[in-house]
Amino acid sequence: MRKELKNTGITLIALVITIIILLILASIAAYSGASVIKSSKFTKFQTELEIMQMKTNEWYETYKNDEDNNKIISELGVTATLPSDSDTSFSGAGLINDGNYLYFSQNAIKNLNIDGVDDEFLINIKNRSVISYGGFKYEGITYYTLDQIPNSLYNVEYENKNTAIPTFQINAETIEEGKHRISIPYDSIKYDGYIKKWNVQYKKDGAENWHTTEDLSFVINEDGGFLIRIINNDISSEPKHVILLSGNEKLLYQADSLTFDGTNYFDTKVQLFNVENYNKDFEIKFTITDIDYSNTENQATLLNAKLENKSQGWPGFALRRKDANATTEITAKGNNATPKLFNNSEILDKEIIITREDGIIYYSVGGEEKVALFTQNKQFDTPLTFGCSLTEDGKPQRYFKGAIADVSIIIKDKAEIKIKEELIKNEVKVENVIYKADSLTFDGTNYVNTGMQLFSEANYNRNFNIKFKITEILPTTVSQTTIINSKLEKESEGYPGFAIRKSGDSKSEFAGRGVAEKRMSYSNANLIDKEIIISRIDDKIYYSIDGVNYEWFTQNKKFDIPVTIGCSLNENRNPWRYFIGTVTNVSIEFVD
């Protein structure tokens, strides 16, 4: 019987499979090795940041009173001259150089006998802020500060511990309608105790529960008032109040609290009744938390938006002491003025709201129904002040004693509302482009006559849009040169229409005249490369600069002057006031 031999060798298939497995294992080992190396380098980077942070905390105790950094520079051997590309480090860290950052080079660190540190740093000892000059890229993200590293600590603990309440600053930026980015620069956080990675909590006014985020920069997806605070375990700051607005509403002034001792006041710089704001609605909110009329004169003023000018009839309004110590009046001068007298107990610890709606000023106290105070009838430039009124010369008088809280002033731009409404209506309309040019250059001798007579009999009631960008404004020997003109130069007619013209060396003027005249000046630097739109909606002329809208004037005359670009036309309709510069993206269209 034939005996079968058993094959004990390795087949080719088995050999190939074995080689493939070995290659896979080798690649895994190589990848793991590279990952471990990279992770260890990142750990070293973080350790170096922590070492420099601890040293910075120690230096802070020694040099916190060195206002000009001279002692720091002399004793530590560092320099205030930063590397030329340090802007990259600040940008990557999300911080701004306030002039107090110093450059710690490798040699300086070595001379300071700091072991285990090979990186170079930008350090602000006053704020205990440490930035890696080169940064470290790990898993697609470049890190510059401890704050940016997940689960890390910044401003690590040091010996001088106390229980002071931390303070911080808030930056708010509107990203789009109803969407806002809140940022808390970590070098704005002031706390002299255990400083660890802060969490941020926020909640909308009236809400019970706080939202918590580990990021110092985050997005809130709605408008409204919000309380924001920073916390770390049982350490918490006082909440800050911020109002987030988008669209046509603009927050012009805000304060958590204002205290008055009878010698101080706060100038908001907000001129509610000047040419620019006269036709805009507003809302003023505050709560009176303390009133002390002892040792104050009659008419001691808490809030003032009133012109102290007898010949003008003292227009505007004020909230002030009235005779006896226990009464306060809200007074006003205008049409149909109806002042109101309150006992102090009626307004103490209650929210007061003063609003303007279509030229009528209202007030409400403690959520009650609003009451008409007066109808405005005068334009003036007096700013709104808290804590005093202003004399005719603009000097403070009649100081108030007490305190208010939750203060805000909001302007509501009706022009922007109307433009938005009109744009929505115009979505179904046909836009008739009458003139268009990609670029127009003017040398002081040429101009463009578009032939468009916007205020003629045929076009007087047609809405229009004029769009363009000014990309260059060059100096001329003539003080006033015209960029765009649709204005009748005729004194007997009152010079109706509008023009945008260079006025002097560095400014340009938007001049419009109809029922009333309105002129606004802007720095040329603030106009260059910004889209400018001039619009007629019904009988009103508006203009916008880079999306910010302004009501200009109400038309009242028909005339057949064409729109010219690069000059204006004199009374004989000859070109003059030639412009030197360039405009681009020009279009004139009717919206029918």
| Biggest sheet overview | 6 strands, antiparallel
* CATH-defined fold name of the largest domain: Jelly Rolls
Q: What is the CA-based Rg, rounded?
A: 33 Å
Stretches where pLDDT is under 50 for at least 5 consecutive residues are: 1-5, 152-162, 416-421, 423-430
Query: How many E-type strands?
Result: 41
What is the total number of structural domains? 4
Describe the 3D structure.
The chain has 6 helices and 41 strands. The protein is α+β, with helices and mostly antiparallel strands and 592 residues long. The protein has 4 domains: 14-148, no CATH class; 171-244, Immunoglobulin-like, CATH 2.60.40; 260-412, Jelly Rolls (Sandwich); 425-591, Jelly Rolls. It has a 6-stranded antiparallel beta sheet. The longest helix is centred in the first third of the chain and has 52 residues, at 12-63. It is globular.
Please supply descriptive tags for the structure shown above.
592 residues; Immunoglobulin-like; Jelly Rolls; 4 domains; six-stranded antiparallel β-sheet; globular; disordered N terminus
Note the topology:
Layout: H1 12-63, H2 70-76, H3 86-93, E1 102-104, H4 106-111, E2 121-124, E3 129-132, E4 136-138, E5 141-143, E6 171-176, E7 179-183, E8 199-204, E9 211-213, E10 217-220, E11 224-232, E12 235-236, E13 240-244, E14 249-261, E15 266-267, E16 281-291, E17 301-306, E18 316-321, E19 327-333, E20 340-343, H5 344-347, E21 351-357, E22 360-365, E23 371-375, E24 385-386, E25 389-390, E26 396-397, E27 401-412, H6 414-426, E28 431-443, E29 448-449, E30 463-473, E31 480-487, E32 497-503, E33 507-513, E34 517-523, E35 531-537, E36 540-545, E37 548-554, E38 564-565, E39 568-569, E40 575-576, E41 580-591
Antiparallel strand pairs: 1-2, 2-3, 4-5, 6-7, 7-10, 8-9, 8-11, 11-12, 11-13, 14-27, 15-24, 16-21, 16-27, 17-18, 17-24, 18-19, 19-20, 21-22, 22-23, 25-26, 28-41, 29-38, 30-35, 30-41, 31-32, 31-38, 32-33, 33-34, 35-36, 36-37, 39-40
